[in-house]
Amino acid sequence: MQRIVTSQDTQILLSRRIDLVGSQHYHVTVAAHTVRLVACLGTKSSPHLVSHFLRHYHDLGVAEFLIVLHADRGDRQAMEVKARLREWRIEPIREIEEYSAKLKHEHCTAVVRERCEPQGDLRRPG
Fold first, then answer.
1. What was the pLDDT predicted at 87?
2. How far apart are CA 18 and CA 14, in angstroms?
């Protein structure tokens, strides 16, 4: 009798349930979803950190970066951050100059609603 499991942890967790129902096989349906990261990036720190940030999250499986960029227009560091984003084929979803925790929350929440929530989500008002 052969059992198909996704991992040793799953086998240990579900083995009693599998035995109780007398199943010979455990099949898992995996839904492939795009992993998105919504982030607010500032340009006041060193721009080279953006490359490390992108590499780190890419290696964790992030496929789509939705960046709210906090930058002063014409700022040299902002231009360098944008260049590093373009190297990854990323354009900021929004650019803001004025910053506060409240505004950051509002912008990031709006991006999530526009880009991440499925159409007709029941949790969404109206």
1. 94
2. 6
Tell me which DSSP letter residue 124 carries: S
Strand partners, 40: 68
- Does the domain at 36-115 match CATH 3.30.1370? Answer given as no
Q: How far apart are CA 61 and CA 97, in angstroms?
A: 30
Q: Which residue has the tokens 């951050």?
A: 81
Rounded to two decimals, the pTM is 0.62
Mean pLDDT per 10-residue segment, the chain (126 residues): 45 49 47 79 85 92 91 86 94 85 84 75 43
DSSP string over 103-121: HHHHHHHHHHHHHTSPTT-
Inter-residue contact 112 to 38 (CB < 8 Å): yes
What residue spans in the chain does CATH classification 3.40.50 cover? 36-115
* Positions of E strands within the chain: 36-42, 64-70, 94-96
Predicted pLDDT at 12 = 52
